[in-house]
Amino acid sequence: MANKLDPMDLKQILTLHLDGYSNRKIGSVLGISRNTVNTYMQLFAGSEYSFQELLGFETSALSELFSSYTPLDTVRHNELMLYF
Predict the structure, then answer these.
(1) More exposed terminus of the chain, fewer Cβ within 10 Å: N or C?
(2) Which pLDDT tens digit goes with each residue over 39-64?
(3) pLDDT of residue 6
(4) Gap between the Cα atoms of 57 and 48, Å rounded
(5) Angstrom distance (rounded) from CA 34 to CA 15
(6) pTM above 0.90, yes or no
């Protein structure tokens, strides 16, 4: 993931998504790539938390959960890849 978003950007993505915005519109509003929004939405959906729970997290917790240094090279991703 080329773009590293700060936790407030992550909260904005979640808020706009919960408000019914499409990923394309979220990217347009925030000035980021739709692909970046898609990637984070996949990461959010793959987490064990609901979007509402993620929105309630402290910024430091969000940053720890979704740092750009672990985009898709995670244990869960590697386990899933064993099936393909």
Answers:
(1) C
(2) 999 999 999 999 999 999 998 888 88
(3) 80
(4) 13
(5) 16
(6) no
